[in-house]
Amino acid sequence: MGFLKFCRIYPIVFLLIIFTDMKAQVNNKDNLMIGAEIFIEPGQSDYNVEGWFNTLLENNMEITRIRMFENYMKNEHGGWDFRLFDRAFSYAEKYHIKVYANLFPATDFTDVGGFKFPADEEHLNRIADYVKNVVIHFKEFSSLYGWVPINEPGGGNMNDPLAQKLYNTWLKEQNAKIEKDKLTDYHHPSFDHEKFLRYYNTWYLKWLTDEIRKYDSVNPVHVNNHAIFNLASQYDFPAWRTFLSSLGGSAHASWHFGFFTRRKYALAMSANSEILRSGAGNIPWFMTELQGGNNIYSGIEPMCPTKEEIGQWLWITIGAGSKGAIYWCLNPRASGSEAGEWAMVDFQNRPTDRLMEAGRIGTVLKEHQQLFSVAKPLNSKIHVVHVKESMWVENRLARDSSKDEIRLPGAVMKSALSYFEAFSYMGLQPSLEELGEFDFYHSSYQGHTMVLSHQIAIPVKYHDKLRYFVRKGGRLMIDGLTGYYDENAICIMINDFPLKDLFGGSVSEFKYMGNLFSLQIDGENLPTHALKGSIHPQSDSHNQVQKIICSDDHKIYGLINDYGEGNVVWIPSPIGLGARIADNYKPFIEFLQRHIDLSDAIRFEPFLDNVMMKTLKSGDEYITIVINKSDSEKTVKIMAPFALRNPAMLFSNGTAFIKNNLLEIGSEEIAVIHWNTH
After folding, report:
1. Considering only CA atoms, which of 589, 199, 185 is closest in space to residue 420?
2. Beta-carbon-side half-sphere exposure of residue 627 (alpha carbons within 13 Å)
3. Are 568 and 560 spatial neighbours (Cβ–Cβ below 8 Å)?
4. Which CATH architecture group holds 604-676?
5. Is the pLDDT of residue 24 over 70?
6. Treating both helix axes as pointing N-terminal to C-terminal, what angle do 192-213 and 161-177 enclose, rounded to 10 degrees?
7. What is the number of other CB atoms lying within 10 angstroms of the CB of residue 381?
8. Residues ≥6 apart with Cβ < 8 Å to 518
């Protein structure tokens, strides 16, 4: 049976096959590993290549990733010649370095990150032949740790013949399942393109994994997505869990953190990591790429990370549950648009301060291997939720030339990030997850808070799930245009708003107010962005109790609606975006503190701008990772609902000092503190 015919007949089965003969998985209790990518290309001397592996060993790095260029594996006659990479794998064996082999089929010299989809069936067959030859050959090396089937999936071109053929097949399948649209009187945009792109990313990744598994059923398969704040809606992480061994990501400040200023790159790393942690679910995650050095012509923002940033980013990923991280790169490549960039060694192959700082952290991880290997992130029962359909609708409707944040692409994600930032300054560790990843199957949500900040489109299938969350004791915080559209970009707030029982009413109207205005809530003047939504409260026979928290001129702009055992805090104005744009979180955080259950959270008292904390639990022991991104020394009071005793400093890059629960920490410093409860 031909490949495409199989896809036409069994499109769903193809996605859901789970390989049961996989003998090796990356385990959630594995030891943490850090490393740096070694870039292999022609012209490198034996002396240099061996030296790079030795450099990893000397700096407590146990893992590398190698990009397996097909273009460097062919001789002048087109035959396979693996000697360039054989040498690297042999040196990896000599120096006990594990290798993630990143498949990289032949592509144009200018294609820095690799193509995301095959062009046609002939190209697909060539890729299959490449995978076969590379996997069969390199699986024999004991240094091989696992496979990365594609570098940075997401954002690819769907205009090629194979994509169009698969799209037509997929569309027929979808149309066969969908009943006649009951809203055909409305003209609304089709989101088939976005849905198919999400499907296609999964399809190709699964196809590549299946090709690897034909020849290697043992070694792990891992992938690194990228540009998560822009491309999150393209990734179906729950589907990926069914065939990947672990999930990873690329988090390059110069490429991927455009929503943030440099001072807030640590916050960006934390948010990126939490999205990956949520996406990984029950499989481990591992940060596949962190920026290790200077970028000049490549990347979007030129920068060279400081040694402090190198340490901050690594500790943040660890605090979010990563099993380690790999820096890009150890050595600079000699050719291409990245030539001479990104490296952690200098041009004389000497370790930079950045590499030595990463090595210092590696020493700590080795010395406390058991403590960190079983440590798990301690979630604060706060769930900041983004919705892929909101991103789809926004991308269709947003205007790149607008002066208002709310009309620009990215406002949906930035609004979620504003709450994530506020909670982080409180010392909390919120999750950051897509609505489809949230677990709606618990019997109680007492003490849990879900935030839907300016998530403009909520699919109808989640309405009852949100009701269930609140009815079972959860608190739902809503702001901005959350729920304005359904998944088809149809405005559902006009006429009979279907969520009025849960929210506590309907919106009367939204008024445009300019970039920033003030909204007084609970006596606090909160910076608010662009839109002021007024509420027509709902009164029914469900014994609901409502408390007005924002009103003037006989109009209501915010309320709390009791629903079942929980409640909803609803402010239909973008207060999160307002705090972010004004870069003034004080009134916003003081508002949040009145409406969040902090009784069982490890946190700061009081909150501290530009200071954040990640918390791990390891058996009966705790690890807090505090990072001060402010421009001055801070005294941090760490509060817990139980006694944290015997604090010991596991790592500091400065003069941080802890006594009892008071931490003195300087600007740009990291403090990693071990506590016990005995």
Report:
1. 589
2. 27
3. yes
4. Sandwich (2.60)
5. no
6. 110
7. 23
8. 525, 526, 527, 528
Residue with tokens 């500091």: 652
Category of 619 on φ-ψ map: left (φ > 0), alpha (ψ -120 to 50) or beta: left
Please state, in angstroms and rounded to a whole number, the distance separating the CA atoms of residues 214 and 28: 25
**102, containing H or E segment:** strand 98-104
Distance CA 531, CA 515 (A): 9
Q: How many angstroms separate the CA atoms of 40 and 51, rounded?
A: 13
User: Could you identify the residue written with the tokens 């870039």?
Assistant: 39
Place of tokens 């930032």: 421
Reported as a pLDDT band with limits 50, 70 and 90, residue 543 is low
Q: What is the mean pLDDT of the chain?
A: 93
CATH 3.20.20.70 fits 382-595, yes or no: no
The answer to pTM > 0.90 is yes
Q: Please give the Cα distance from 65 to 330 (Å, whole number).
A: 10
The helix-helix angle for 192-213 and 121-138 (nearest 10°) equals: 40
Between strands 621-628 and 670-676, the pairing is: antiparallel
Distance CA 605, CA 133 (A): 58
All residues at 6 or more sequence positions from 252 whose CB lies less than 8 Å from its CB, including other chains: 226, 289, 290, 291, 299, 328
E-assigned strands of 292-413? 324-328, 376-377, 382-386
Distance, CA of 500 to CA of 170 (rounded, Å): 36
Q: Which amino acid is at 541?
A: S
Residue 553 confidence (pLDDT): 82
In this structure, what token pair is assigned to residue 441? 């199957």
CA distance 312 to 269: 9
User: What number of H helices and E strands is found in the chain?
Assistant: 20, 26
Q: Which helix (H) or strand (E) holds 316?
A: helix 307-319
State both tokens at 141.
Answer: 């090396």
Angle among Cα 262, 578, 279 to the nearest 5 degrees reads: 60
| Rg, the chain, Cα only | 26
Q: What architecture is the 32-367 domain classified under in CATH?
A: Alpha-Beta Barrel (3.20)
pLDDT digits (tens, 9 = 90+) for 565-611: 999 999 999 999 999 999 999 999 999 999 999 988 999 999 999 99
Give every CB contact of residue 71 below 8 A, 6+ residues apart in sequence.
106, 107, 109
State the Cα–Cα distance between residues 279 and 454, nearest whole angstrom: 21
Say if residue 380 is exposed, middle or buried (CB neighbours under 10 Å; 0-12, 13-18, 19+): buried
Q: Where are the domains of the chain?
A: 32-367, 382-595, 604-676
Q: Which of 384, 398, 563, 545 is nearest to 479 (CA)?
A: 384
CA–CA dist 434, 216 (Å, integer): 32
3-class DSSP state of 87:
helix
Q: Strands 634-639, 662-665: parallel, antiparallel or unpaired by DSSP?
A: antiparallel
Residue 625: closest CA among 665, 569, 570, 584: 665
514: left (phi over 0), alpha (psi -120 to 50) or beta: left
Average pLDDT (325-341) is 95
